[in-house]
Amino acid sequence: MPRQIVAPTWAESSIWQFQEPGDENMATPQFQHLFTPFTVGSVTVRNRIVVPGHATLFMPADGLPTERMLHYWLAKARGGVGLIMTHVHNVMPHHTGAPPVALQTDAIVPAYRKVVDALHDEGVKFFLQLNHVGGEGNSRMFGGVVLAPSAVRSTRANFLPTAQETPHEMEIKDIDEVVEAFRQAASKAREAGFDGVEIQGEVSFMLAQFMSPARNPRQDSYGGSLDNRLRFAREVIAAVRGGIGSDRVVGMRISGDEYFEGGLTLDDTILIVPRLEATGQLDFIHVGAGPGAASHIPPSYRKAGSFVYLTEAIRKVTDLALICSQRVNDPLIAESVLASGAADLVSMNRAIMTDPEMPTKAREGRLEEIRHCIACNECIARGRIGMPIACTMNAELGREQQMAIEKTDTPRHVLVVGGGPAGLEAARVASLRGHRVTLYEKGDTLGGQPLIASQAPGREELDEVRRYYTYQMGLQEVDVHLNTEATSETIEQEAPDAVVIATGSRAILSELTADDVPVVDVRTILSGEADIEPGQRVVLQAEDHHMQGLTAADFLVEKGCEVQVLTEAVYAGSQIETGTLETLYQRLLTKGVTLTPLTTIKLIDGRTVVTENTISKAEARIQGVDMIVASYGNEASDELYREVKSDADSTSTTPALYLIGDASAPRRLMDAILDGARVGRIL
Predict the structure, then answer these.
(1) Environment class of 484 (CB within 10 Å of its CB; exposed 0-12, middle 13-18, buried 19+)
(2) Which of 65, 140, 261, 561 has an alpha carbon 20 to 30 Å from 342's alpha carbon atom?
(3) pLDDT tens-digit profile of 257-313?
(4) First and final CA of the chain: distance in angstroms?
(5) Cα separation, 211 vs 223, whole angstroms
(6) pLDDT value at position 107?
(7) What angle do CA 297, 299, 305 make, to 5 degrees?
(8) Hey, what's the torsion of the CAs at 375, 378, 380, 385, to 10 degrees?
């Protein structure tokens, strides 16, 4: 069982809490640290904001950089960051039998020279991240074996162990080959013009495996004592320094705490860092976390800033430049970290993914305009199933070449019906293009379904949808009509040139009927419309397979209910990103929620729920039930579209008509915003 993360109380201070626009605390801060230059080794960066290495799948694994990857980095450079690091580049294949990786070919030098020059032209520094995954590799594509310090099976992914295998214990010749591969890779980095390299020693990859007593029980000079377990890391550092030269930067990324059984702890790291510094060949340490306990890419259940204590502790034992990482999603938090002296630079990955212009906006005092990461982890969820990453809040991410917002030559009147994510993004983009936009929302607040979802514990950051878009509607001078349900008559009166229907969806109503027990949907629960009393026994059928059912269960148990979650699937939440699911399960199970897979409600007899196993058909009974909650997903609310479309089919004078978001097909928040972004660009 992963160890619980316990953050110090200072991480809960008000500086980490999001401020509403217009609040007196949102006055333009004096960024005395964040936008000052800083020298790391031989390189001076223009400010303290770092884009850390992260997988995008915008280029082939272990392949050469693509135009898509270049434009992704350029967007961040032009947005004002100080330093960009590439994703991990493996110095050798993950396993024996695989073809050479790009770093083992001469083609990588001219390919990256073009990228380096383009980023240097934008004023940023660029580091190459070097890695070997060791025992975390997978040999099944080409055969062979993965190499690791010892033949110890990984435990880092025990929550969903889908790709683990037993590695081959490295012989001395294997160690020598890997060390030499690091040296050659660093030499190529120099030839390509990189300003420095970062050695990946984090998240239980090969370097961390050698450091770990649990992963490295070797009995030779590379195992046993801490100094022996650090021998490989020292040899890699020396090889990298030799390859790149004394006039470039060398650093290492490490986990402040790996947060899993047998993993490296903060106490271990505090002993390790001074020994690595003593090599005299490192310029910086980049403090990360994990991979255990969903800490490497923390979901919204981990508070922003709650991992800073790791860097703060390491600051006390080293004079090397320190980069702080993990859940720093706002420039105010970054400034506070720097002002405290905990770090010299701040890694802001998802924050910059969500808004590449965040540094410029912050420097210019336009804090309300910043689009904040909501830590939904849809970005990493895509990467883990082999899809290129994307951002829920920023539809342009990875599509920079195709999704520039260009002014229109023919301004029109655009009417948007629905103030949820799809409609709001369509209105924002259409207005930026120069159209006159009118938006109707039947409720009293903009935001749509995220307004409801944000009521669940740990999901409060979904309220960023309301905050960001409400401000944008004012900034873009969109004519917003709240508490007004648009009809076909409204459209006729407005006489727009184009109509965008974004009327969202409604919860699918359960076919379950009961005389003695209320049957409600998850929206009714989270919106506060249901009568909930402490001590109620609740049965929740979770068939949305994502966040709705499980977050409703979390909400109910927080209210003092006794909750049992049923699902027909092998496990509840099967479409949720692994780290988020692990954290959510941890929350639910420690609060006493019962999770029952392969089970559905067959019938309701008074206050007794009769269940059926979906495979064996065996029945069971849950007695004394006070409420049944149905989470079966959503269905499109597209009646207005069909009505207007029917009218349009009978005349040639009707406006152009578009259907987007859940009104087109109920999907995720990411899909709704992408729909709005696309239609806003074609209007």
Answers:
(1) middle
(2) 261
(3) 999 888 899 999 999 999 999 999 999 999 999 998 789 999 999 999 999 999 999
(4) 52
(5) 8
(6) 96
(7) 80
(8) 160
Spell out where 386-536 has E strands: 413-417, 436-440, 479-481, 498-501, 505-507, 519-521
Q: Compute the distance between CA of residue 382 and CA of residue 559 in angstroms, rounded to an integer.
A: 33
The per-residue pLDDT for 652 is 62
> Residue 116 is encoded by which pair of tokens?
């380096």
Outline where 341-447 has alpha helix (H).
349-354, 358-363, 378-383, 421-432
Q: Are strands 43-45 and 125-131 parallel, antiparallel or unpaired?
A: unpaired
Q: Side chain identity at 427, as an amino acid letter?
A: A
| Calpha distance 311→289 (Å, rounded) | 10
Q: How confident is the model at residue 155 (pLDDT cuts 50, 70, 90)?
A: confident
Distance, CA of 665 to CA of 661 (rounded, Å): 7
Rounded (10°) CA dihedral 502, 421, 426, 372: 180
- Residue 650 has a pLDDT of 67
The answer to whether 52 touches 202, Cβ cutoff 8 Å, is no
Residue 145 has pLDDT above 70, yes or no: yes
Q: Which pLDDT belongs to residue 26? A: 38
- Give Rg (Cα) of the chain: 27
DSSP symbols for 81-120: -SEEEEEEEESS-SBTTSPPPGGGSTTHHHHHHHHHHHHH
Q: What burial letters (b/e) apply to 561-594, b meaning 16+ CB within 10 Å?
A: bbbbbbbbeeebbeebbbbbbbbbbbbbeeeebe
From the list 370, 373, 369, the residue with the least C-alpha distance to 354 is 373
* Cα dihedral 412, 418, 424, 425 sign: negative
Kind of pairing between the strands at 656-659 and 498-501: parallel
The C-alpha atoms of residue 478 and residue 163 are separated, in whole angstroms, by 50
Q: Cα separation of 635 and 646, whole Å?
A: 20
Q: Checking DSSP bridges between strand 619-622 and strand 519-521, what pairing results, if any? A: unpaired
For 505-515, letters b (16+ CB in 10 Å) and e give bebbebebebe
The pLDDT, as a whole number, for residue 156 is 74
Q: How far apart (Å, rounded) are the C-alpha atoms in residues 81 and 103? A: 26
Mean pLDDT calculated for residue range 576-601: 96
By the 8 A CB rule, do 109 and 191 touch?
Answer: yes
pLDDT at residue 592 tops 60: yes
Q: How confident is the model at residue 427 (pLDDT cuts 50, 70, 90)?
A: very high
Contact 65, 115 (CB under 8 A): yes
Neighbour tally for 145: CB within 10 Å: 16
Angle of the 547-558 helix axis to the 578-590 helix axis, nearest 10:
30
Predicted model pTM = 0.94
pLDDT tens digits for range 241-273: 999 999 999 999 999 999 988 889 999 999 999
Identify the band that residue 59 occupies on the pLDDT scale cut at 50, 70 and 90: very high
Tell me what pLDDT residue 385 has: 85
CB-based contact 552:456 (threshold 8 Å): yes
Q: Are 108 and 192 in contact (CB under 8 A)?
A: yes
Long-range contacts of 655-659 (CB under 8 A, 24+ apart): 655/415, 655/491, 655/495, 655/496, 655/497, 655/498, 655/499, 656/497, 656/498, 656/499, 656/683, 657/498, 657/499, 657/501, 658/426, 658/498, 658/499, 658/500, 658/501, 658/683, 659/501
Decide if 348 contacts 354 (C-beta within 8 A): no
HSE on the CB side for 550, CA within 13 Å? 26
CA distance 587 to 564: 14
